[in-house]
Amino acid sequence: MSAGIRPRLQLFGRVARESGWLHRVPAGWKLAVIALIGIVALVLRDAAINWTLAGVLVAIGLTARLRLRHFVLTWAYAGVLVAVLMVVQLLIGTPAAGMRIAGTVFACVQAALLLTLTTTVAQLLDAFRVIVSPLRFLGANPETIALTASLMVRAISHLSGLLGEGDRAARARGLETSIRARVVPAILRSVKYAQDTGRALDARGIVD
Q1: Where in the sequence is the domain holding 189, given as residue range(s)?
Q2: Pair 99, 57 in one domain
Q3: What is the distance between the alpha carbons of residues 157 and 132, in angstroms, rounded to a whole number?
Q4: N or C: which end of the chain has fewer CB within 10 A?
Q5: Which of 61, 95, 119 is the last residue before a domain boundary?
Q6: Helix (H) or strand (E) holding 83
Q7: CA 97, CA 90: separation in Å to the nearest integer?
């Protein structure tokens, strides 16, 4: 039996090895489409439109040679969030509102998946640097903003991995039903990750 460290769970941030047409679309265009999807979902606030957007995005992913296995895990985690939101809406709102919110969540999650599966972090940062470059005239530093975005992208993947590790550790101790056993270790390690990142940046003099 082989030994070793199990790789961390990643919901976002890992580029798919299969290269399709969506990989060749410039990152700036993909960011613009995601922004448009978010605006449509939040402004129109229509369940049918939101679920249609989610379905279209899934179809786009499949035509871009992305396999279902790239999506299923994140869909499962999004499904848990949607289930909680649906219960809340059934208690204090309406089923229609729950369906609308669920459609918005799945559409935005699927859009983010397509972006991260077909775009490297370097490509994202280059596009983001171009987008924020006009802020230079207002005294902002685009390089610092891009660095912040890079750290955020890496943190999403890292923190999702910590949650996966916490879940596996709780199951190994027979505490799979304990939210505290699953979440508290991830929170503590997340704080340590943030502190280590801050110390590393300070030691290199990258940011003031």
Answers
A1: 133-203
A2: yes
A3: 23
A4: N
A5: 119
A6: helix 69-92
A7: 9
Q: Is the pLDDT of residue 135 over 70?
A: yes
Unique residue bearing structure tokens 């924020």: 132
The residue-averaged pLDDT of 32-59 equals 84
Q: How far apart are the C-alpha atoms of 55 and 58, rounded to whole Å?
A: 5
Residues near 171 by beta carbon (within 8 Å), at least 6 away in sequence:
none
Greater confidence, 123 or 9?
123
Which pLDDT value is given to residue 95?
80
pLDDT in tens, 90-127: 788 788 888 888 888 888 888 888 888 888 877 877 88
Dig out the tokens for 143 from the structure.
């390089």
Cα–Cα distance between 8 and 161 in angstroms, integer?
5
CA dist 118 and 15 (Å) reads 6
Higher pLDDT, 198 or 62: 62
| Separation of alpha carbons 143 and 23, rounded Å | 25
Using alpha carbons, list the distances in angstroms from residue 46 to 43, 59, 83, 162.
9, 20, 18, 35
81 and 166 in one domain? no
Do 70 and 148 lie in one domain? The reply is no
- Is 37 found in the same domain as 102? yes
The pLDDT tens digits of the residues spanning 138-171 come to: 777 777 777 776 676 666 666 666 766 777 777 7
